């Protein structure tokens, strides 16, 4: 790796964006010269990171961003394809030709024996727009399979479904993130931005200073600590809380009647449900004082500029769509959405969580946020792809259902994984690992040997982040260009190269799967033209020139759409829709055997499954291992002292975590971060109960008990990625 | 198998809820054909919210339970404005006031209760209805009558200092009426509260313009003047609102020969003495308890729907833990479980805090580490937490005072950087501890910007900039540069 050369001269920093979350902080990468004291401590070696004054981060970076260059030199970086001839054999390096030839041969064999849907594809919300687009096209055209979905199903699907139901269109923030700078009041529901996207909290400063920040979270998070009012509902009761607050909005006279009449439909039906949730009743279910519900509504209603923002805490439930809808109802009742200076939004998680859900790697979608069951959409996209619409498959299984069906009768026999690590990130992870093991063929394209790659028959080493060009769409629907700052290590290929190589070997014309990202984007523009997420007016040239383009951008001369819905919502009648949703409660309530709620989430130092961040020494040293936040009384009853190792046990499995006494957490609730591998996987315990609409699993609440880990308390065990090298 | 014919007598909170719960389990009506008969002309409404209507925060329209199309959409044969004349359990038929006869497989009584009017001279007219200037507080029509009759600013007397009486009093006081509550015993809400809390509550109400007269009853009502009280005094009132309790509506059941005590007797399957007749809600008496609150009625409706639809033939009603929650603006009161327990009761752990000047009272009764009862007035956060512990039956936190006081606990004074442990994280975005900042200082970094450059503290969200400045100032104070700064070796 020492021979790698920067793509640009050292004197010209590459303006790009952080590899992690949806805030996509602006940063500049410069060839390392050892003069910067901060950078030298990361040991990155190749490039140094400096924050840029970009609207989302304004010169701020969190520890992940500052240390992101280290991921480029992560220990165990894959540089050669690996292949095992059979499951008992170890992975061994092979040439690209052998690897791709083997995969194509096996795919053909399996499809010949079991049909087209015997091959499944699993993508990721971190893939660039170009990769997400090419992956969906590859599945539908080169493989002809309906079985394609992605990890964004575990992330944004509930918010997306609720947004479409209410507004007719889903864009996480339908306004620029900088609009929040003027907010006097912000209600954050299940969002811990101080840890998940720290520089974002700059935009909440005015609300914080005004005493206008309300945080809804069962835990007293770093974000909740900044709030004027912290509402602490029992896990799985956010919907009841939203209903109680809507009731309070009505009873306390905060409704915006003119707005409801002119810009919405369905209020009466929504009220009939909320009428049964007077705040005192919601209090009994949620544990949030009726007085606090009223105070939170008052803060929102009396602010000149107010916003309601949800995130995974509200959405990752078997009733996640309805929960998001209930918060949208509240925002609509107060007249917030579709106006300058107020609104509703959901905070996208993954780096390209927005673009990743628009361009066709989702089981029910085609590029441009089109529906795959819409004949017009099929005809349009088929024409761009040069195929017969009749030959496009229909909707396939959702992410968890897809993983659950692998290797079963009628389920896929082979899986191709790009940009995802479901062995760590999928619910009921132990079962998912078993399903992967039951496949005839597992192919994983990744940068490092992730937990999922370790289980693969073929591992394809691909480029990352600063080694390639591509676009992403950030949390505010702004299309961004991430630029290549240095050459990839010799031997690795881009995902687009991999898809091209496989497609050609599967008999596709060579020009149908271009390897140049800008060329792919040109095709994406045409495919998305006329769709809800219309990128046809976005060009890389405009992005290079620094234009601030929020979709839709329906023509090359169009300035983009920073704020949606100002004149009308995207439903045919132009109105937003209230949804008459009711509380259902967690799919798995606690009982005598599993008396505690477990909830999962993130810590500042790690990202998603940790495949990247667990390989950055500085981050590992700050957050080396999994932990479980437990109220000291609850821990004492389980016989667990602070710092001891516990087993967190559910009906589906158990995870090992170090006990962290946390006096501010509810006594009936424990918290596990989900970034760690092997027996520390939080998802070994999570419940795959699915939302009926979004098919989102219930990551945020399940029933568990705590046990001391049998035997001697173990010493701290930082994850050692080096041992994962083949 | 054809659908079972279920007839529900009563279209109030319980009857309406039962219909919803049945249709939730049997949306197409394949298992249960539903007829619901309501005596009142208007559609079902949410009785719990009547105090909000009285207070003016909700319109009468807003408390309707169902819209006009509900019955058709839900395949419910709904007959409002229809009284039931007679039930014949032998032939499983009931006769309506209009002479129509309905057969049933299962009959559900959800007839509710009616307001009880004390035998005070002049309250009722010759026909047994409230006299002019007198209203009970039970139905939506009662609400309308009170609001029509209450001239702006006119004095109002409320007979009965129970939950509903106080909610009515609060609503009317909020509309600008001088209100006096007449209560026959020694303290307010005596079933739910102990005397100490009753006193604090009375003081709180007084601040809101509500006078409370205890240990008195009304002897006589004189129209246009007011009440003559048992202590001989007179109470001027243009309007008298009677909220002196309710009686279960059991007339039909008694006439049909069903076993009736204070309510229609039912077992855990909500079955009356006739196996084909069930009863739920305020008219039913289960395990010695007659209803009166909505939660038991809704719990019973869910169990009965499980049984009637076959969704869960093992469903049983075992009672509902009662949490009393006063719905009155600016009065936050919750009471639950056993509260008439003295602080020195040997078998229980009892905590009690009285703060009448600030309108706060908190009592906690613990048995076997669990909440057995509580009264919480003026501490909303504590009320919410204690209620959840009571409902879940989980052990109470060892810090009893924190539980009793909720957020009222004083927070610590702002800490000086000197008091922070070295491990305290100052910049969360970049995991920078006070110790690392001290190390950087010793290595020569000066000022907040120097510390930031050396450690990245404050370069994330910037939220710790003030703390960083504080630490920089503190370091400059305790570790000043005597000579032009010569970097010292780092000590860590």
TrEMBL record, chain A:
Gene3D superfamilies: 2.40.40.20, 3.40.50.740, ADC-like domains, Dimethylsulfoxide Reductase, domain 2
Keywords: 4Fe-4S, Iron, Iron-sulfur, Metal-binding
Top-level taxon: Bacteria
Domain spans labelled 4Fe-4S Mo/W bis-MGD-type: 11-74
Spans traversing the lipid bilayer: none
Region feature (Disordered): 707-726
Protein name from the UniProt record: Assimilatory nitrate reductase catalytic subunit
Organism: Streptoalloteichus tenebrarius (strain ATCC 17920 / DSM 40477 / JCM 4838 / CBS 697.72 / NBRC 16177 / NCIMB 11028 / NRRL B-12390 / A12253. 1 / ISP 5477)
Automatic annotation (TrEMBL), chain B:
Family annotation (Pfam families): Fer2_BFD (PF04324), Pyr_redox_2 (PF07992), Rubredoxin_C (PF18267)
Domain BFD-like [2Fe-2S]-binding: 425-471
Pathway field: Nitrogen metabolism; nitrate reduction (assimilation)
Cofactor dependence: [4Fe-4S] cluster; FAD; siroheme
Swiss-Prot/TrEMBL keywords: FAD, Flavoprotein, Heme, Iron, Iron-sulfur, Metal-binding, Oxidoreductase
Residues covered by the NADH-rubredoxin oxidoreductase C-terminal domain: 323-389
Ranges for domain FAD/NAD(P)-binding: 5-301
Parts of the chain that traverse the membrane: none
Alphabetized InterPro entries for the sequence: BFD-like_2Fe2S-bd_dom, BFD-like_2Fe2S-bd_dom_sf, FAD/NAD-bd_sf, FAD/NAD-binding_dom, FAD/NAD-linked_Rdtase_dimer_sf, NasD-like, Rubredoxin_C
Family to which the UniProt record says this protein belongs: Belongs to the nitrite and sulfite reductase 4Fe-4S domain family.
Gene3D superfamilies in the cross-refs: 3.30.390.30, BFD-like [2Fe-2S]-binding domain, FAD/NAD(P)-binding domain
Domain of life of the source: Bacteria
The protein's name in its UniProt record: Assimilatory nitrate reductase electron transfer subunit
